Amino acid sequence: MFISFVVGSILSTLTSHEHFERDNMKKSETRSAFTLVELLVVIAIIGVLVGLLLPAVQAAREAARRMSCSNNFKQLGLGIHNYHSAYNQLPIQKAGTGLYPNASWDLSNTQGNCEELSALVGVLPFVEAQALWEQIANPNAPNKDGSAGIWPAMGPTPDNGTGNGNYGPWNEELPFLRCPSDPGTGLPAAGRTNYAASLGDSIVSSTDGPTTSTLNKKNSNAGQMARANCRGVFVPRQKAKFRDILDGLANTIMMGEIVTDLGDRDIRTNPNAIGTTATIVANPALCGDASTVDATRPQFWATSGVALINTGSIGRGFRWADGNPVYSGMMTISPPNSAACVADEGMYDGSGIIATASADKRYGLMPAGSRHQGGCHVLMGDGAVKFITDSIEAGTQTSPMVARIHTSDTGLASGSQSPYGLWGKLGTKASKEVIDSEF
Fold first, then answer.
1. C-beta separation of 209 from 361 below 8 A
2. What pTM was estimated for this model as a whole?
3. What is the DSSP letter of 8?
4. Which of 154, 217, 227, 370 is deepest in the core (most CB within 10 A)?
């Protein structure tokens, strides 16, 4: 309405000017052009119009990017449902081949993937990426540069270790895993992803599930820990089915959007190492403590006194094929676009939690997030895509989380309702929590 009014005013002014010229033609010679003042007025008005239109154009472009991002998520949801129809289970987060010749799953390996693959690998044939799946499922996939490779079926560990960083499929940039609003691209990342599996509302067991450091699935303590701690739709290294989601598919988050790292000390994308697992379990709010962020730019870490884990090749969303939470996992503890952090250790060895070979394999708090304004998308269990605002009710952020470590409850007792409000309830699949608020 305002733009129409301005344009109308300009036309009216020009018309009046023409009438004025006709009246004066009888008294003086006809002028052949506008005066300098008149030209400056018209240019100023055009500048105002452009200034008004640019924000509207930018908003329209972001709306289109957001819709494209939502469509990607819908396709992933459809692929996961088709996978479940075919195999009567969800794709496993952290699946694959065994340890040989490794002594522990956290070590880089060129002869197997140590059950480190994300659920996104398994869903490839159901999202029209059959050709890439064929390369992965068969031996001798191409190298990153396209040359002939000598690789095992299902590939090496999806990390940047010596040799295996050259495995071609793990470096593929897949458009359906990228949100157009996220500008992250290229090295030091491999193939990036903006979509991550929901792991619930606890950080413990988030990298190993019901296994020990040697992938032993018959250890009683590891199994009990996973049953207590892994409250999300996806359980690392364990089969999961829709029937396990007792709170209802429409009430449970299956995947969430994440932001990829740009190397700019963003609190969402470069996790801060803040202490032991027990420290984070006792108070998740320590992840974004005011003493660790820049006072003038609270979305970025302070320039000193912060132990960031990014060593160049480690960053949020850097490897779509890697099942570790920093790359392809998210949790419903802190609200969207909150700070990410990791513990100093994060692997269960059958008798206690020990340090891992690299920081990206530690237990850590990995929130959802996006570069959209005010929130992020989530994929619900029934395939619906919803936009969750940063201000979603997230309970008491200083409350300890549910956490069984070895044989005892370090945080809240196993089976407790989520202390993280509506956000926490949406992330748990079988805690008998009623969703009584709109989201």
1. no
2. 0.84
3. H
4. 370
